[in-house]
Design a protein that fits this description.
This protein is α/β, with parallel strands linked by helices and about 180 residues long. The protein has a single domain, classed as Fe-S hydro-lyase, tartrate dehydratase beta-type, catalytic domain (fumarase). The chain is built from five helices and seven strands. Strands 2-3-4-5-7 form a five-stranded mixed barrel. Helix 1 links the parallel strand 1 and strand 2. The longest helix has 12 residues. The chain is globular, with a radius of gyration of 15 Å.
Length: about 180
């Protein structure tokens, strides 16, 4: 299934855990250092460097960009490092997250409460994912280097719906 970014309420409503989708459009890259700064800006009632409404954040730090390329290898990083910040960002309009690994219960609860989605990106596929990136630009926090916030335009970016807004999970959960 093809999904156009940014996400809409209706699109999120129709997603179910375990579905394979391909993302097309604009997403943002941010890791834990950038997340901490975003939350601090929210706590200080200061403007964010991008609008969270409908936005999807990809948990990734790109490798250096080779000559003539748009981006270096750009595989997912472990999502649990963003768990302390995710409920706050979801409460302020973030619609989706992309990473690898399972999320804390507080994040799962926030996904349902704020009608959002968590996508699982395939680990070990950073070189492949770089071929799905059509545009890459720095948005904020340049001093963080590869952990800065970047805006990517992607095409045919494959992910799996890991946790949906209905409480569904694609992860094995013991009985």
């Amino acid at each position: 299934m093809k999904l156009t970014l940014p996400l809409t309420w209706e699109t999120i409503e129709n997603l179910h855990a375990g579905e394979a989708v391909r993302l097309h459009g604009e997403l943002y890259v941010a890791r834990d250092a950038a997340h901490a700064r975003l939350v601090r800006l929210l706590e200080e009632n200061r403007p964010l460097p991008f609008d969270l409404k409908g936005a999807v954040i990809y948990y990734m730090g790109p490798t250096p960009t080779p000559p003539g390329a748009i981006i270096g290898s750009c595989g997912p990083t472990t999502a649990s490092r963003m768990d302390p910040f995710s409920p706050t960002l979801l409460a302020h309009g973030l619609s989706g997250m992309i990473g690898k690994g399972q999320r804390a219960q507080a994040v799962l609860d926030a996904i349902v409460r704020h009608h959002a989605v968590y996508f699982y990106a395939y680990g070990g596929c950073g070189a492949f994912y770089s071929t799905c990136v059509e545009k890459n630009e720095l948005v904020a926090f340049e001093d963080l280097g590869p952990e800065a916030i970047y805006r990517l335009v992607v095409r045919d970016f494959p992910v799996i719906v890991a946790n949906d807004c209905h409480g569904g999970s694609a992860f094995f959960e013991p009985a």
